[in-house]
Amino acid sequence: MPKISSDTLWELAAAEVRETEGGEEDAGETVSERTVFLLGSKAGGKTSILLRCIDRDEPSKPTLALEYTFGRRARGHNTPKDIAHLWELGGGTFLSDLVQIPITPVSITSLSVILVLDLSKPNALWRTMEKLLQAATAQLEKVSSQAQQAQKAKPGAKHQMPVHSATRVLPKDYPDRELISPFPVPLLIIGSKYDIFQEFDSDKKKVICKTLRFLAHYYAASLIFTSIKSESLMSKTKSFFSHLAFGLDRGKTLSCDSTKPLVIPAGLDSFSQIGSPPTTDVDITSLHAKNPKDLWKKVYEHVFPQENTSEQRELKDPAKDPQYSEPQIDAMRAQKDQELEQYKRNAAKSWKGLELET
User: Fold this and answer.
1) Which of 183, 192, 337 is nearest to 261 (CA)?
2) With contact defined as beta carbons under 8 Å apart, do 334 and 326 qualify?
3) Strand pairing class (33-40; 81-89)
4) Contact between 166 and 91 (Cβ < 8 Å)
């Protein structure tokens, strides 16, 4: 078993994969390992997109909480295969606390994040984006600080891993460099279910497109709209994914037209091209925004009031989910549940029959 810095179940599993798959590789060559973390809208198509990107022909299942898999890619004939550790967070925003598992001091040096937003549900889009990116940013800043403190505590240690800063450094010629707030690690925003979105009213599509362009540029992220029903769009999506997972070229396609699927690599958009928030029935000066991002939020929520639903109530009990059925265990569980209910009824009768002293 290779030496690892943590004994969590997740990292033990990742280490086992590296050990098992590493037997056929040339020990003299370095294997690249990267981590890609997918999160986003509940039932937004994250699993389907991921399976297509890693060429796995299998039916997608609802992600229960946090799932791990991996992808491998050979650089050439008889060469080591690079490894991508792939994490997927289920449950929309409800399980955002689980970001602490894939975002660690070890993974942060080669980590990328993919945020999948369901275009067919614009009334949940902004809040989903906001809460998940806030949770991921907080964890990134936390582990970055921990890594820096650990390195300071051992100034003379040899072979130290580079400490990843929680602030991404962009090229000096990056558009609007002084006006944006780059996400701490490379970020790809995927607008899913474009096949449904393209049937929307043109004015509503324009609001969503311009808002997502603003957010992507503000976070120095790439943006692409996709649909698992379109081979062309999935091919472009796979190029962006492979760029993050294996360092491959992401292609040079650029599309900023709101009447077509957006494809905008990071650094190829600007606030001047995006323009002002699209609104006709509200005075922007009356919104009292604190900053440009807050202004876009208020305009977007004016057009698409955000839903305030409790995802906790919607989350299914995994013990009753048929995809995780285990006949023997389920039978024993049912028996224990019956015994518990009988115990509760007997206890209730005992309390009712008890005469309290006065």
Assistant:
1) 192
2) no
3) parallel
4) no
